[in-house]
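Q: Fold this one first, please.
A: Sequence and structure below.
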Amino acid sequence: MWSRATETATRLAKSFDELAPKSWFRTAVAIGFAVMHLILFAQAGHARLGVPFNSHPDEAPYFSNPNAPATRIFPRQPHNWSRLVVSRWDSQHYIGTAVRGLSACPKDPDTAPNVAYLDCGLGWLPAYGAIGYTVASVTGLAEDVSIELVSLICAVIVNLLWTHKAFTERIGRRESYLALLAFNLFPTAFYMVTPYTEAMTLALCLGAYIMITKDRWVMAGLMVGASTALRISSVAFGVALGCTALVAAWRKRRDKEKRWWWPLLSIPLVGWGQLVEMLAIKAIVNTAYGFWRARKAFGDKHDLDRFVQPTWFLKGLGAQHMDIVIYGAIVGILAMFGREVIKKFKPEEAIYLGVATLMTMILVVLAPLEYWGMNRYMLMCPLAFVAMAFMAKRHTLLFVLWLVFCIAFYWHIEMCSYVAQGNPEICPCLGRFEFAMPMQ
């Protein structure tokens, strides 16, 4: 029986090795994982709330009060923003921006209080909402469906990038697929198919890595720069690209290449998206700092002292999503396999992936008001998922146990909390209560 099982496993492995490089297979796997998340969302909506995937198919999101505050009253507007089971929490703000733009924002920054910019939806960068509006205008789809469609397309692109030859030629084809598997079973991987900015941001930043492998530095800068219009935390990839460009230029100059300075052209581009967005906000609401004023009103406070406060980390073990448990696991995986992984990449590539992951791990601690969102931010740690693939290669049982652990967190904690908007009565596995929001 054992010999038969071994023979079957060998046959399956051989079949996989034949299929893995084929474009249609890569595309099918990439789409399959995206569909998997949608199916699980549909099931979560039914099991947790008893609602269908779309609870109001005949009524798109709309504002009955064009100046309705974005955060301070319930029920939140636009009406029906949460009709899709994938639309929860911050989805409201991206959908709201897609529906009304920044029309509710004050036009006199000298007299307007900071909270007025929060009320008009500027507490969340408006670029993704603008993309949703554009797609809705072109396709005729509702704004929430348009943003969701963009996220789905970007999620498939991200999955395809994990098995791109820029990864398979460095770490191996099987390892690339294992990294893809680990990524899609990570507790917060479902955010890739929500009306959030994660999918597009990661598509741009992984795309920049592909450009680095091809020595296309301007394109890498344009991609990372575009990501800064979506998420401030993508500054981690901007810093990473800047460090990478400096090292690449130095190496090219050492090797006496004529255009040794070419990588340096990417550095001025790493923040172009944020700059353009600030100029657009300035043109619309008469202040380029509307977003930052809104975040100040929201209560943003990023304290470096967290890194030297053991109590902060210990309390996080029992936080609502037990974020420090996952954070500690990622730190452990990187400590065990990070050095081996780094050696598989060329110096410039290793610097980009390594610095981006390190910077993100730092921001993961600094960014949240308490602990909320830490597990989601860790989707932007590409080196961690490659390290998981090496864990599978070296310690298969440990990798399997890690996946089982991730699946449990995915279903019982992260997705449940997302769908139920933090309601501990619906999600009994949650840790210490931090925050919840009434269902619309």
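Q: Good. Now the second chain.
A: Here it is, same layout.
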Amino acid sequence: APGATRAIDGATLTARLGRRAVDYALAFNLRSTRGDQHTLTLPANADVIAVRIDGAAQNLRPQDGKLVLPVRPGVQRVEVDWRDLASPGLQLRTPAIDLGANAANLDIRVELPADRWLLAAAGPRIGPAVLYWPELALMLLIAFGIASLRRTPLRLHDWILLGLGFSTVSWPALIAVVAWLLVLDWRARRFAGPGSVAMTKGTFNLMQLALVLLTLVALIGLFGAIHSGLLGEPSMYVTGNGSSDRALMWFHDRTGAAFPGASVFTLPLLAYKIAMLAWALWLATALLRWLRWGLDAWLEGGYWRRDEVPAPKQELDVAGTPDDPSTLPDAAAAGSPVREDRLDIDPEPTR
């Protein structure tokens, strides 16, 4: 009966990105109904390092990119390792590979070193998603909305720069800093002028303590962002098919002879470090202005409320009238005689 005599199951292509080259490893299960030869087409510039069949090394090298493998009836595990000496640059694209037979359950894995900064990735439908960019777009919209309120000394570019610095570190820390700025603005507006909010002593003091704690949380978040940005690695919020910032994995269910491709866009990590250093210098100068404004907002209407001291009672003389003459009742109005005190003054001598 006519039909194919060979099929490939469970093929995996792994790409390990290096500084000056990319190492590839192709592994698959080859099923055959008879003994024959199988031709595998690799990139023309592939420098084959090793070929193994069922774990046994084979002394095989490609000719014009075509690697001929011996095939026996049954199932055998084939592994081919090669190196591409071309620098990947900004974009790494997996090479075009012809498996020579129909294949199913194909996996692509791209491993990034610690000195590369992942920007984006593309490949088969089942694979990683870099959520940083849609989250960044949402952050820009929120920054525009907050800046349009003009509630704080921060302008639109300040909100954008603040969000960019926290975008690869921690969104919750950014929310804490934004909440700190907005709450201080509310504090300054509510207790300024004659329309200030009436608040009991205990509530006011509790609010002041809460603002101090919120300030400490915001400052810890700011310094943590600087530390993580300068000494840590950026988080691009990669998810999907078990992927991470350092390992991107795709899955394709079925293909013909052509192995599906994937692309990864990266930059040297040094570019991220330089950007974070510039952001940290900007933040250091901006934070001084924000703290001065925050202190004025915290002191608006007083910084602490104490118990009011009762007014002292006026002492009465023996006659039962206050010592202060200004408190004497109007005798004429009351209809009672008023005693006039006379002073003994010596008469002026005559000349």
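Q: Anything worth noting on the second one?
A: Residues 331-343 have pLDDT under 50 and may be disordered.
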